[in-house]
């Protein structure tokens, strides 16, 4: 298998990978997450300029 | 014995031509519907486009034969750096930058090619941008780039930059649209490479490790050569996709601002079918130019595949 299975690496590499995985996913889906947040915000927030 | 042989020979002679050639003809009969559809919906329109490009026609009135005047007009548009020049330039930009999806897809595939808990869910979610419609991708990125409420400007604002009106600035608009297009294309290349990585020979990996290869050297000398089929398909689909780009430009900018994000496919639609167009002959000429550009790449790909098949025999 390539790359080397993460289970065979040191504990610190495993923790780094487990941390990077969800962060990478959030960055990858950021446009969709932003649209999802937008879709549930009330109209009043937009009219007052409170976008986020 | 000889009588039985003679009667067998007579029976063979009496069969119809179809029965005698059935084995040779049957594959063609199965292919016939597909071939007919292909001829009628692909080949015939190609020749018809070329024919229409020789006319000045608004789609309603009688056609007027003008020869190669439409191509002459395109040539002068190119020389004067007008719409056709901009469209061609943007298509070349698309062609070059869209190829970034291939190494990006490989990088993400290598990142996800693990067996940790939940990795299948991660792979599915990373593939998600390819599943959604290009129209949705265009809308999502239009809001993403918006200078007032777009999250991109919020993020770069944290670093003291911006706001940047990506889709409203002639300098950035094409790059912004290409970035939007790279999102689903990278997901597609990722899946190709994940499949390819599953097929990599573990013995070769092991032999490489025994010889001391690791990291970049293992990837470059052992893994990537085995990913050649996946890379070829990724290359073909990415090149064709870059030349066919239309949806994102249509949704995000309508070719603007001031036509700076036009590509050939969108320009062809604008001049032939939009409310400002109705120049079918001119649009057909652009279609022929686009087809000839694509034909060069398609011929190369077909030649590569043919050479590969001959080498395999």
Give a brief description:
By secondary structure, chain A is mainly alpha-helical.
> For the report, how would you describe the main beta sheet of chain A?
none
Q: First CA to last CA of chain B: what distance? A: 43 Å
Fraction of residues in H or I helices of chain B: over 70%
Strand content of chain A: under 5%
The secondary-structure element order of chain B is HHHEEHHHHHHHHHHHHH
The whole-angstrom Rg of chain A is 18 Å
Count every beta strand of chain B, where a strand is a DSSP E run of 2 or more residues: 2
Chains forming the largest contact: A-B, 23 and 29 residues
Description of the molecule:
- The complex is a heterodimer of chains A (52) and B (313).
- With 52 residues, chain A is an all-alpha fold.
- Helix content of chain A is 65%, strand content 0%.
- Chain A has three helices and no strands.
- Chain A is rod-shaped.
- The mean pLDDT of chain A is 85.
- Chain B is an all-alpha fold and 313 residues long.
- In chain B, strands 1-2 form a two-stranded antiparallel sheet.
- In chain B, a hairpin with a 7-residue loop joins strand 1 and strand 2.
- In chain B, helix 3 packs antiparallel against helix 16.
- Chain B starts with a helix and ends with a helix.
- The mean pLDDT of chain B is 90.
- At the A-B interface, helix 1 and helix 2 of A face helix 7, helix 8 and helix 12 of B.
Q: What tags apply to this protein structure?
A:
heterodimer; A: 52 residues; mainly alpha; 3 helices; 65% helix; 0% strand; B: 313 residues; two-stranded antiparallel sheet; flat
């Amino acid at each position: 298998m390539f790359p080397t299975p993460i289970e065979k690496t040191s504990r610190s590499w495993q923790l780094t990978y487990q941390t990077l995985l969800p962060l990478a996913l959030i960055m990858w889906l950021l446009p969709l997450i932003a649209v999802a947040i937008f879709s549930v915000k009330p109209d009043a927030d937009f009219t007052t300029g409170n976008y986020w | 014995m000889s009588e039985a042989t003679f009667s067998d020979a007579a029976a063979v002679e009496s069969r119809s031509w179809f029965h005698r050639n059935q084995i040779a003809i049957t594959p063609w009969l199965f292919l016939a519907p597909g071939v007919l559809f292909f001829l009628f919906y692909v080949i015939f329109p190609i020749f018809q486009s070329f024919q229409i490009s020789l006319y000045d026609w608004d789609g309603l009135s009688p056609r007027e034969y003008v020869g190669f005047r439409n191509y002459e007009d395109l040539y002068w548009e190119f020389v004067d750096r007008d719409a056709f020049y901009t469209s061609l330039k943007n298509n070349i930009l698309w062609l070059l930058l869209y190829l970034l999806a291939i190494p990006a897809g490989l990088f993400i595939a290598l990142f996800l090619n693990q067996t940790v808990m939940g990795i299948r869910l991660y792979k599915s979610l990373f593939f998600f941008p390819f599943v959604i419609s290009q129209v949705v991708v265009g809308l999502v990125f239009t809001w993403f780039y918006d200078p007032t409420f777009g999250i991109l400007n919020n993020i770069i604002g944290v670093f003291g930059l911006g706001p940047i009106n990506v889709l409203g600035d002639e300098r950035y608009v094409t790059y912004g649209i290409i970035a939007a297009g790279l999102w689903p294309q990278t997901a597609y290349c990722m899946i190709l490479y994940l499949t390819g990585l599953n097929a990599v020979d573990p013995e070769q990996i092991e032999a490489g490790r025994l010889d001391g290869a690791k990291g970049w050297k293992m990837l470059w000398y052992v893994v990537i050569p085995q990913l050649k089929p996946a890379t070829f398909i990724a290359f073909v689909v990415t090149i064709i996709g870059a030349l066919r780009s239309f949806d994102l430009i249509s949704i995000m900018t309508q070719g603007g601002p001031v036509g700076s994000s036009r590509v050939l496919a969108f320009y062809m639609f604008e001049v032939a079918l939009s409310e400002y167009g109705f120049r079918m002959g001119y649009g057909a000429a652009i279609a022929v130019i686009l087809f000839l550009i694509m034909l060069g790449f398609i011929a190369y790909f077909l030649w590569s595949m043919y050479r590969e098949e001959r080498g395999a025999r």
